[in-house]
Design brief:
The chain has 319 residues and is α+β, with helices and mostly antiparallel strands. It is built from 12 helices and 8 strands. 33% of the residues lie in helices and 13% in strands. It is globular and about 75 Å long. The termini are far apart. InterPro entries: Papain-like_cys_pep_sf, Peptidase_C48_C. Keywords: Hydrolase, Protease. Belongs to the peptidase C48 family.
Length: 319
């Protein structure tokens, strides 16, 4: 289960600082106008991924459409979503409507451009898409992304082991008393969520003879450190996709390679089309049509030649 938890208050107030949005959505049928089978799958060249293959294969909403995506369609979809036309910046391009109604406009997707902080609406959309995936760990464990004072981090609850962890791309422990209080507050909210969903509470006061079943003061997992000031949201989204709670250990670093700036931007682009081309998106037909009409500008064969060098000084002399 992916819980969306957002805290944006400058001063800590549990009653005002957090919004917990959790729900399931009914998958809508894809309209008949376009079928992704119409786009033949291109053979993809192997890419060295920073994510271990065994982990990467476990998750990712690419199966949510039920169809393999053509690479060209993915690329056009990303360009269409990030279009900088002013007249369409408030155009809704992702919407679900079931037990809850939620939508994201193009202006919010533009936060996925390089060097920008990811908008909370995009992270919520990705959480909802993942939440409806047939992935076992999302049925047995809880992933809760949180934003507070402009920084994203994530809580992970392993219900089987009764362990509670924090993944933070900037910090390895609670940096302030406010953060410690937030940790405890979110733990109690997650426990209430479990009870609401029909599970037994994991929170017990404990006695001298019986210790508490679970500590709501989570342990910080050693994991990636972000290389900049704006990719914390990207880390949280990718962690939701690839982290395996059974491998979390506060005493050792999570077994995953570091991600470069190029990896992080590739993740952003992948997440855009995974959200928009999900069959949960009621605007998927508009997305496919927009992608088809999007022109990808590529350099000519001459400019791609390793024997051609472009001298900007010479270009300035042209009439």
């Amino acid at each position: 289960m992916v819980a969306s938890v957002a805290a944006q208050a400058k001063e800590y107030d549990p009653s005002e600082a957090f919004d917990l949005g959790v729900g399931t959505t009914r998958q809508s049928k894809m309209p008949e106008m376009y079928d992704l089978d119409d786009f033949p799958e291109e053979p993809e060249t192997p890419v060295t991924s920073a994510v271990p293959a065994t982990t990467a294969m476990q998750a990712g909403p690419s199966s949510s459409t039920g169809h393999p995506h053509n690479r060209d369609l993915k690329e056009r979809c990303v360009m269409w979503a990030l279009s900088d036309r002013r007249d369409i910046k408030y155009d809704s391009i992702f919407m679900i409507h079931g037990d809850i109604h939620f939508e994201v406009v193009r202006k919010q997707f533009r936060s996925m451009r390089p060097g920008k902080e990811v908008d909370a609406a995009v992270i919520t959309a990705y959480s909802l898409v993942l939440n409806n995936e047939p992935i076992p760990r999302f049925q047995s464990d809880i992933f809760a992304p949180v934003i507070y004072s402009g920084h994203w981090w994530m809580y992970v609850l392993d219900k089987e082991k009764k362990t509670f962890f924090v993944g933070d791309s900037k910090r390895k422990d609670a940096p302030s008393s406010d953060r410690t209080r937030i940790n405890k507050f979110v733990g109690n909210m997650i426990d209430q969520l479990l009870v609401y969903a029909g599970h037994h509470s994991l929170l017990t006061k404990g006695t001298r003879s019986k210790p508490p079943q679970i500590s709501w003061f989570p342990r910080y997992q050693q994991i990636h450190e972000q290389p900049n000031a704006y990719d914390c949201g990207t880390f949280v989204m990718k962690w939701m996709e690839v982290l395996d709670p059974t491998k979390l250990d506060a005493h050792s670093k999570y077994p995953i390679e570091d991600w470069s700036a190029e990896d992080l931007q590739r993740f952003r682009n992948d997440i855009i089309w995974q959200i928009i081309l999900s069959t949960q998106n009621l605007h998927i037909q508009k997305a496919i049509q927009g992608a088809i009409e999007t022109t990808i500008h590529k350099p000519s064969a001459a400019l791609r030649s390793p024997y051609v060098q472009v001298n900007t000084d010479e270009l300035k002399k042209l009439p």
